[in-house]
Amino acid sequence: MVGSTWNSISYMRSLANSYADANTEKQQCQRKRFAAAMDFLKTVTPYLRIGYRNCGAGQSTFSAAMSEVLKNAVEGCEAGATVNFQKALLSKGPLTKAADADVTVEGGKATFSWTDNSGVGSAKADDVAMVLAYDKDKGEAVYDTQAGTRADGTAELTLPTAWAEDALAVYLSFCSADGREVSNSTCLQNEASTQQPGGGTGTGGGSGETPLG
User: Fold this and answer.
1) Is residue 80 situated within a structural domain?
2) Residue 3: inside a domain, yes or no?
3) Is residue 10 assigned to a domain?
4) The pTM is what?
5) Between the CA atoms of 110, 127, 152 and 189, what dihedral angle is there, to the nearest 10 degrees?
6) Which domain holds residue 100?
7) Are 194 and 133 in contact (CB under 8 A)?
8) How far apart are CA 67 and CA 73, in angstroms?
9) Per-residue pLDDT tens over the stretch 30-81
């Protein structure tokens, strides 16, 4: 027997004869999937603070991003649990996405390009470009959340010298000038990696740490 209280009422109850196994195959799988998403998202937290700033009330930006990535971008189970970077959204919102977006990685930098589609949907010329590159081999990220405007049609992101031979996932998003709306991110490059992530930490590029608006 064990004593307890509820609503200031004392009572006795019998101990449970058994308990649920907290280490079932399904729970092990979920933990591995959660860990895969966490290893990725913890490196890009400042980017997520803008990219998921309009998430539901009572939910943090990181929690909203974790929920999205777990549901739609994590594949496999246990040792095989991985993030499908092509499907991962690092920003999510109704703002019109970039048109004809592309990226070229060479000479220690990522050069982004897109067609100015201002006036299409909710797109405006002064929407701010947000760019990010994630090194799959090292588990590190660099980003700039104020890399230019939609009207510019181009932006650049400097990459660490040590990344020269590594596999990258590269993203582009937009945020309205007043900071109220964001677009879904677009993964513009997703190179295959043969190494395990190194578990490094994210590094902000330019003014990437400062939210807009």
Assistant:
1) yes
2) no
3) no
4) 0.81
5) 20
6) 22-204
7) no
8) 10
9) 899 999 999 999 999 999 999 999 887 778 999 999 999 999 999 998 778 9
| Residue among 173, 154, 133 nearest 50 (CA) | 173
Q: How far, in Å, CA of 193 to CA of 135, rounded? A: 9
Judge whether 16 lies within some domain. Answer: no
What's the pLDDT score for residue 211?
A: 33
Beta bridge partners of 10: 5
- Mean pLDDT along residues 83-103: 97
Number of domains in the chain: 1
Provide the terminal-to-terminal Cα distance of the chain, rounded to the nearest Å: 58
Asked if residues 145 and 202 have their Cβ atoms less than 8 Å apart, the reply is no
Beta pairing partners, 82: 75
CATH of the domain at 70: 2.60.40.10
DSSP state of 28: H
Q: Give residue 101's identity as a one-letter amino acid code.
A: A
Instruction: Classify the C-alpha dihedral 37-42-47-48 as positive or negative.
Output: positive
Q: Which residue has the tokens 């609503």?
A: 7
Place of tokens 């299409």: 120
Alpha-carbon distance of 125 to 100, in angstroms, equals 16
Helix H or strand E encompassing 155: strand 154-158
- And the tokens for 127? 């929407």
Torsion of CA 186, 187, 188, 190, to 10 degrees: -170
Give phi and psi for 131, each to the nearest 5: -120, 150
Rounded Cα distance between 135 and 35, Å, is 17
